[in-house]
Amino acid sequence: MEKVTKQKPVVAALLIATFLTAIEGTIVSTAMPKIVEDLGGSHLYTWVISIYLLALVISTPIFGKLADLYGRKPMFTIGAIIFLVGSVLSGTSMTMQHLIICRAIQGLGAGALATIPFTIIGDVFEFKMRAKMQGLISSVWGIAGIVGPLAGGVIVDQITWHWIFYLNLPFGIAALVLLWTSLHETVEKKKHTIDYAGILTFALTMTAFLFALNQVKETGNLSPGLIGRFTAAAAGLALFFWIEAKSKEPMLPLSLFKNPFIAISNGAGFLLGFILVTVTFYIPLWVQGVTGLNATSSGIAMLPMSVTWPIASMLSGRWMSRRPISQITMLGVGIIIAATLSFTFFDEQTTIPRIMVNTAVAGLGFGLTFTAFTVAVQSSVGWNVRGAAMGSHNLLKSLGQVIGISVSGLLLSEQLQGPALQHSLHGVYILVSVLAVCAFGVTAFLLKQNETFSKE
Q1: Ramachandran region of residue 413, left (φ > 0), alpha (ψ -120 to 50) or beta?
Q2: Long-range contacts from 228-237, C-beta under 8 angstroms, 24+ separation
Q3: What residue spans define the domains of the chain?
Q4: In the CATH scheme, what architecture does the domain 7-195+247-448 have?
Q5: Using an 8 Å Cβ cutoff, are 263 and 257 in contact?
Q6: 281-326: per-residue pLDDT in tens?
Q7: By the number of CB atoms within 10 A of the CB, which of 17, 38, 308, 433 ranks highest?
């Protein structure tokens, strides 16, 4: 593939695309209590989030693999268009069921926006610049984290929540224009074999698993029917792995997981994705449901995380040229352990300034770890499988978020306010503290690795 001839416009396009995916979580989580109040269906609260993440999980490895086969630019374009259509449709929703369907469409397109920009960074920049660019990309998460909760709170309180979805449209169009006018790539023209069987099996398996997981909360027990669904999902997963092992051009090459940096980064990424989605969606719920403050206040509570994340990310990028990745990631996960433990001490008297301190600490940990893991995956493979490698990494992070929002939803009280909510959220925070310790254990395996990366 040709190197990019105009890097600044490409970088701008990638930053905008990243901004769209980054702001989606913070702005929607801030608006969710108001959306439920307007549309009803509090029992469907987690579905608005989990259906988006499910669609993201399904489409992420698909777009990653197709970007390797047909080029980054056309696949990015298709994904962006699907995302923007889903955004507009979400804004027009008048029922919770309608919103859930539209969020699924939005999530399908988000798979391209979440994966392909990182693949392009790996194509365009050499190792040292990848780390710096990853820090820059992460700073966009910080900006989106600042803008998202505040903008979401203001829009919900002063206008209407529908506009949180419409705001995606101008940014998405700008990203497409910049990318098409500046990214020049040459993809080898040959006949490719699409892994339709793998794609279909993976999609059906993940959908069945999520439906079964959410039905556990609705029914309150593991009935024979639910056990059967979980068993079918497990069988589907086994079938998917068998198909991928036999496929000529698998959607998810299993050989990638023989690479220790990819295996460890993906394992830790899964656990950290679980923790991140819990912090992102349930801290605003605590502020509004337990302390009784408004959406703007919940946005302010999340603000420090958006400041410390990019700072830590840029530090991570600088340190990677002279420090082992294992040191950076273990430091980051250690900080996340401290942050999640601090959440377990919240009560109804916890002030916004105290919550802000805790979210600031969490941002430091996530900034250090996600940046280092992403660069490790980008740099440990060549161009021809980089899209699939990044797809696998984002798949595991997104899958962690899907399972995280569903499992934590099992602990969440049906009453989204008062002592019942407080008690259930304490259970959620204890769970993620345990998972943070597990992530530290997985990350420790990096200590044994000799860091030899691709310099392409």
Answers
A1: beta
A2: 232/208, 233/205, 233/208, 233/209, 236/201, 236/204, 236/205, 236/208, 237/205, 237/209
A3: 7-195+247-448, 196-246
A4: Up-down Bundle (1.20)
A5: yes
A6: 788 888 888 888 877 787 788 888 878 888 888 888 778 777 888 8
A7: 17
